[in-house]
Amino acid sequence: MTDTGPPPFPFHLPAPPDPAALPLPHPAHPADGVRLLRGAVYAVPDGSRPLAVDLWLPEHTTGLVPVVVFVHGGAWRTGLRDDLGPRFRHWQPGPFARLARAGFAVACPDYRLSGEARHPAQTDDLAACLAWLHTRATDLGLDAAQTVLWGESAGGHLAALTALTQPAGTVRGCVTWYAPTDLPSLAEDCPEGAYDARDPASFEALLLGGAPADRPEAARDASPVTHVGAEAPPFLILHGSDDALIPARQSIRLAGALRGAGHHPDLRLLAGGDHLWAGLSDEDVEDCFARTLGFVRRCTTTVED
């Protein structure tokens, strides 16, 4: 009798649990008046790690609360979902706790980094997070119809790109801090020799899956300015005038595209400001946060449903 080995055993991986049905994390209390649900899974992309979101919530509310979705920076390559940058790490209470105390929910999501997936995976992830927030709105006490996106650096790029590519009305406003907005124009905007659009190892190339000069359509599609239209939400755009990493001209381009489509973005160039708000006084950094909070309030209280 010939031994032919074990019979074939087709094995199909079971589907992961639906993130909309998973139990929410047990809340922590990092500051008076604030609940923190850290690490709620909002998506399980095929072939990737589960993606989680931290939720900073007001402790006591009388109704549903508007939502701020904060998107972290890190050149699309690294970063922590709850890190606003070195100028804010010493704040007590921290910026997200301050927003929760002001009556807003803050969602800080993971997204797939460029070492895991190329564009448009990152905006796909943020769209999935928005959908999850809508699905879990009742559980969390959210008014998800009043959502503002906010991001810094690469996170500002992703916030803007998401805000401009979601169906009209999904997002009530968008805040960008020192964000790239027009990838094909980076070489023109940077000082001579500071940026090479043909470099396959640049952060932009790693996001796109190839040098921007070699993937012009992908670079255009990954640029918020490409997607500005008549239904774009309100924008607050903050950038340091002396940013040595992402030129302020990138924010000027986004504001110009929005004006060209009939909008009135609030563009502020901060004199002497470098990337991550280096070069600004503590008072100026506080003002950036205060302007952001004020913009969120206007977007979530004056827009008609």
Automatic annotation (TrEMBL):
Transmembrane feature ranges: none
Domain BD-FAE-like span(s) in chain numbering: 54-258
Pfam families: BD-FAE
InterPro entries found in the cross-reference section: AB_hydrolase_fold, BD-FAE-like_dom, GDXG_lipolytic_enzyme
Region (Disordered): 1-27
Domain of life: Bacteria
PANTHER family: AB HYDROLASE SUPERFAMILY PROTEIN C4A8.06C, ALPHA_BETA HYDROLASE
Name of the protein: Alpha/beta fold hydrolase
Lineage: Bacteria, Bacillati, Actinomycetota, Actinomycetes, Kitasatosporales
